[in-house]
Amino acid sequence: MVHIRPLGENVKIVVVGGGTAGFVSALILKTSFPHFNIDILRSKKIGTIGVGEGSTEHWSAFMDFVGIQTADLINKCGTTFKTGIMFEDWATKPYLQNVHDPFVAEQMGMPIAYAKLIGENVDPRDMTGDYLWDNNVPFNKFMEERPNDTGVSQYHFNTEMLNNFLTNKAEEMGCTVIDDEITEVVVSEWNNIDYIKSETDKYEYDFYVDCTGFARLLIGKLGAEWQSYSKYLKMKEAIVFPTPEEEELPLWTLAKAMNAGWMFRIPVQGRKGNGYIFDSDFITAEEAQKEVEDYLGHGVEVRKNIKFDPGALDKSWIGNVCAIGLSASFVEPLEASSIGTSINQSFLLAQRLVNYNQESIDRYNLEVNSIMDNIRDFIALHYITDRKDTPFWQAVSKMPLPESLEKNLRMWKDRMPIADDMTSHTKKVLFNEYNFAIVMHGLGLFNTQSIAKQYESLPEGAKQHVENAIQHKLQFDRTKTIPHKMMIQLLRRLT
What is the total count of domains within the chain? Predict the structure, then answer.
C-alpha cells in the first residue's frame, strides 16, 4: 500500500546523504516545491566518493532551473570548461566525444552533418572545431557585459569546493542541513519508512530520498535488488589521486586506455583530478599505481581506493523512498554519467511526486530503468575496440554485448542512429544519437559507404544546410577565440 500525500504546506521531505546527488535532488525539489519543508541529513564523518569531477550537458539544465550562475562556479568551485572527452589509445587515432555546433543539424531525427562527415570517412579530429584542439574557447565582445553567457554547457569541478557551494546554495533557498549519522531505519508493515534514528535524535518525514551512496541505507531496507552489469562491463575498482596543475588547461576530460582499464585526467583550477578505473582480475591497486607513475614520470598519492559492482537497482522508488545517485546506480566514471543521472532522476521525481500512487511509482521506475539501459549500452560501446595487446583487452573483446546494443549496432552499421532509437520509455536518457554516432565513428564501427549513400538520399535543401554549416566551421574567425586559461582568468576578474 502506498501512502498518498497531497500537495500542501506541511509536506516534509528529507534527503539523506550530503554528496552531489543529495544536494542536486534537494535543490531541484526545493525549486519545484518552495513551500515543502526539505531537510538534508548528512554525516561529515562519511564524506563523499568524489570519483568524478566532470559533468554532462545536463548540468546546464540544472543550473538554469535552480538559479546558479556560471561565474559563481568559476569563482567558487575551481571550475573549468569541458567540451567533451578525449579518448586516447582506445582506437587507431584519438577522438573527441563532443557535440558542439556547427554539426548539430538534423533531418527526420538523423544527425545529417555527421552523416556527411562519416560517409566521407573524415578523420575524427576534424569532426569538431579546430580551436578546441588548441584549448581555445569562443569569445565575443559581449562577454564583459554577460559573463555568464559563455555558450559552454559542460564543466569540470573541484568536488570538495562544489560540495561547499551546493551546501550554501541549499541553505540560501531554505533547505535545512543537519549533520548527523543514521543508526537505525524503521520500516512499517506497509513497507514504507516510518522514521529514521541517530544516536541522539528521531527523524520522521512524509518522503525520504536515499542519497547514501553504495550503503543504500534506506532503499536497501525495502527490498530493492541490485541488477549487476558485470556480464557486460568489467570495471570494478578505481584508485583516485590528484596531480599538480599543468601549464596547459585542456578543454576536455582525458580518458586514456591503460593495460587493465583506463585513466581519467580532469583539469580544474589549481590541480588535476585523476583516477585509474580497472579490472582487479588483471591488476592490483598497487600495480595500477605503478603503471600510472610510469606513465606520468613521477609518484602519486592515492587518496581513495573504491570497489564497485557496475549496475542499478531494479526499483529505485519503493513506497515513500526514492534512491538517487550512487544509491540507485553506478556504472563507472566513463562519460561522467553519474551527475547527469542524478539530475534527470530528480526532475522525474519532481514530476511524479505530488499525489503519487503505485502507478506513478511504476512509471518512474520504468523511466529510470530506461535511463540506465541507455548508459549501460553507451559505456559498453566504448569497449568494442581492436585492442588485444594485453590480457585485459583480450578478455574485453570476448565479452557479450547487451541485447539492446547488439540490435542497434546491426542497424547502425549501415545507417545513422536516429533520435527515436534512444527513447524507449523516456526522453530523459543521457546519451543521444550524436553521442553514439561520434563514438562509433571514432572506433571505426560504421560502414562508411552505406552512410554515404544514406546522406546522398537526403533532400538537396538539407544537404545545402550541411554544406553551409561545414563552411562556417572552416571559416571560423580564430580572433573570436581565446585560450581556455585566459577565459577562466577573465571571468574571475569580471565577477
Answer: 3
